[in-house]
Write a structure and sequence with these properties.
CATH topology: Methylamine Dehydrogenase, Chain H
Number of strands: 35
CATH superfamily: YVTN repeat-like/Quinoprotein amine dehydrogenase
Shape: globular
CATH architecture: 7 Propeller
Length: 484
């Protein structure tokens, strides 16, 4: 077991007790638009645009810790690359719940891993807060901070000023908007979903135009209330793998338990498959296969034979939820291994024809280049654990690229006590054959955060550029790149 005394954080950060959770141990400090000094190297000439990242940046208030890593208030980092260099901005999303709790100086709301503090009637009066802490979507005129339990929040693309919740022209009452939308770079269409709870949950599917406005919706009833975090765009199909995790609703309704602790692993249900036609948003097929859990899909596509190929970060069970809960406490002792796995299925029947482990290394946050979303991609980029690292006591501490053509893994070794965020692939503005990989790195040796820029084809060499960030950025979940 690895334990942090948060009260001693200021004394300990200097390296006496190096640990990844120091990045989360204190609420993050915002900073205004600031020129970022170059620590080493040079910003590539073709790297022009803005990196946005979102994640839980405050895990306590009024001396009370939040119950799960997923409960933290969201904060957005924006790093803008221009001919004059790089500037950074970091701001909390000013949700109504965040503002109420800031004014009160204490926690008022429940969330994924905690019930509302105080007497039991608070569970009904203030049941849950939109944390706006999971991902981002850059639209032509605004940035969306995404969180799957509610509506997105719109922010200014440059200043990150929060404008408020956004219904995208179609999110009527009771409709949520997930954190994992998929954008087809060829058509500009954006696909997403949301779960509406009930005795049996409703899966709402949305298609938006390039501005984010919802232009088409459909709804389908699910079996019970499952935890559906992500989906995949695969050619002409939208595919959901619905894992055998179901919410025990009664403890939630009476206010005696939170969502996280009410989620039950039920492997007898298997993984349910739902294939949707992307044009009509109608069901093509439903099926079932063996049980597993996944938070994230890497990508999907249709091969020459008409089969759908889907790549996921696959867990054998739902222990990952317990591990992520422990991250917020500073004590991690649950092993939860995810491996890059490829699934073949027949779209007209949802019949799975093969399940293949592609890489036997713990990995998460798998991504592909934006232009390859929904199409075949030679590469998947991901965060991984360095060989020899204790999976139960560490966060992911390296990034890597898997080449499906050569079946080789190229790994970036960041050194001891350094922890990267999900790697974001960026196409060079000047040369379509060149691309970069960007990751925010927390350095536990100096208790500081940096932005590292790698050549995507040379991950196993030194980064081309390192930029110093003004304050520590707690470990974030997801990001995006908005080209200039």
């Amino acid at each position: 077991m690895h334990t942090i005394d948060k009260k001693s954080i200021k004394k300990a950060w200097a390296g006496a007790i190096p640990t990844v959770t120091f990045a989360n141990a204190q609420p993050a400090t915002e900073f205004p638009s600031t020129q970022l000094p170059i620590i080493s190297g040079k910003i590539p000439d073709g790297l022009r645009g803005t990196l946005y990242r979102n994640g839980p940046a405050r895990l306590e208030r009024g001396g009370i810790d939040m119950g799960h890593w997923f409960d933290g208030d969201g904060a957005i980092l924006a790093v803008n690359f221009t001919d004059a260099g790089a500037t950074g901005v970091y701001r909390y999303v000013q949700t109504s719940g965040y503002q109420e709790e800031a004014a009160a100086g204490k926690l008022l709301y429940g969330n994924y891993g905690m019930t509302a503090p105080g007497p039991i009637w608070n569970q009904w009066q203030k049941p849950i807060k939109n944390a706006a802490n999971t991902s981002v979507l850059a639209l032509p005129d605004k940035l969306l901070a995404l969180w799957e339990g509610g509506k997105p929040h719109a922010l200014d693309l440059q200043t990150l000023e929060t404008w408020g919740e956004d219904d995208l022209g179609g999110l009527t009452k009771g409709l949520n908007y997930s954190a994992h939308c998929k954008r087809d770079k060829q058509t500009g269409e954006i696909f997403n979903f949301g779960i509406s709870p009930g005795k049996n949950a409703t899966l709402n599917i949305y298609k938006s135009d390039s501005t984010g406005k919802i232009i088409q919706k459909s709804a389908y009833q699910l079996d019970g209330v499952p935890l559906v975090h992500d989906f995949v765009l695969a050619g002409q199909y939208i595919v959901f793998f619905i894992p055998p995790v179901r919410l025990n609703v009664l403890p939630i309704l009476v206010g005696i338990n939170n969502y996280s602790d009410s989620l039950e692993w039920q492997p007898r249900l298997g993984t349910q498959i739902l294939v949707i036609d992307r044009e009509t948003l109608s069901v093509v097929s439903r099926g079932e296969t063996e049980p597993w859990y996944q938070w994230h899909f890497a990508n999907g596509y249709v091969d020459a034979s008409g089969s759908v190929i889907v790549d996921i970060a696959r867990y054998e069970d739902f222990q990952t939820n317990q591990y992520l809960k422990q991250v917020a406490t500073g004590e991690t002792h649950t092993a939860a291994k995810s491996t890059l796995t490829r699934v073949h299925l027949h779209p007209q029947t949802s019949k799975v024809t093969s399940i293949q482990q592609v890489l036997n290394r713990h990995c998460e946050f798998p991504t592909v280049p934006q232009q390859n979303v929904g199409q075949a991609s030679q590469y998947t980029y991901m965060s991984i654990l360095q060989t020899g690292t204790d999976i139960s006591q560490e966060l992911l501490n390296a990034i890597a690229r898997f080449d499906y053509k050569t079946e080789t893994l190229t790994e970036a070794d960041l050194g001891e006590n350094r922890y990267p965020s999900e790697p974001i692939h960026v196409q060079d503005n000047q040369n379509p054959e060149q691309s970069w990989l960007l990751t925010v790195v927390y350095d536990g040796n100096s208790h500081s955060s940096e932005l590292w820029v790698f050549d995507s084809d040379r991950l196993d060499t030194e980064p081309l550029c390192k930029l110093q960030l003004p304050s520590v950025i707690p470990h974030s979940f997801h990001g995006t790149w908005n080209p200039a």
